[in-house]
Design goal:
By secondary structure, the chain is of the alpha+beta class. Helix content is 25%, strand content 24%.
């Protein structure tokens, strides 16, 4: 069985950090493709020892302005 996860990718110091928003698993790579492949492996390893995910099909995205 396959699952769809929501992922955020953030460039950071020459790397791309990929973070799964469903479970907070993260990985990185020198390219977006490498970061996604590394994240895929990290999620597979995470769920080897944990229950399979119950994912919602609904996700909401927005921006938030914060003044400092």
């Amino acid at each position: 069985m396959s699952y769809h996860f929501t992922v955020a990718i953030i460039p950071e110091d020459g790397w791309f950090v990929a973070k799964c928003l469903n479970n907070s698993v993260a990985s990185q790579g020198r390219s977006i493709e490498e970061a996604m492949e590394n994240l895929k492996e990290a999620i597979q390893l995470y769920y080897e020892d944990n229950e399979k995910p119950e994912l919602s099909e609904t996700a909401y995205f927005t921006t938030l302005e914060v003044a400092f």
